[in-house]
Amino acid sequence: MPNSSSISQFLLLAFSDTWQLQLLHFWLFLGISLAALLGNGLIISAVACDHHLHTPMHFFLLNLSLTDLGSICTTVPKAMHNSLWDTRTISYAGCAAQVFLLIFCLSTEVALLTIMCYDRYVAICKPLHYGT
């Protein structure tokens, strides 16, 4: 009979062992994520509602805000949960999902920023070829 064991969770390192600092981390995460959600929500609603902002630059800015929301909503809620409830574990499936979604959102942001740079390059250096 072989001796085997399986581990189904990762252990997370805590930011702090004291309850007051964990609450401080929770409130900081909450405040920063709400500010980012509010800012991205304003950009999304402004671009979606105003037909004058339906230009390529604003289209890419809208998509950049959406991917930024995705990357924020991927990592911050678990960090807030860990700070508030003093949990120090994450399942393999949860960790894999977080890593996949974060890499997907960040690579999408890099691609969008690259496309936005090329869009601005064409608009500035070759204005006659740029359709608005």
Automatic annotation (TrEMBL):
GO BP: sensory perception of smell
Cellular localisation: Cell membrane
Residues covered by the G-protein coupled receptors family 1 profile domain: 39-132
Transmembrane intervals: 26-47, 59-77, 89-118
GO cellular component, one term: plasma membrane
InterPro entries named among the record's database cross-references: GPCR_Rhodpsn, GPCR_Rhodpsn_7TM, Olfactory_GPCR
Membrane topology: Multi-pass membrane protein
Domain of life according to the entry: Eukaryota
Coiled coil: none
PANTHER family attached to this UniProt entry: OLFACTORY RECEPTOR (PTHR26452)
Family from the record: Belongs to the G-protein coupled receptor 1 family.
Full protein name: O14I1 protein
Species assigned in the record: Rhegmatorhina hoffmannsi (white-breasted antbird)
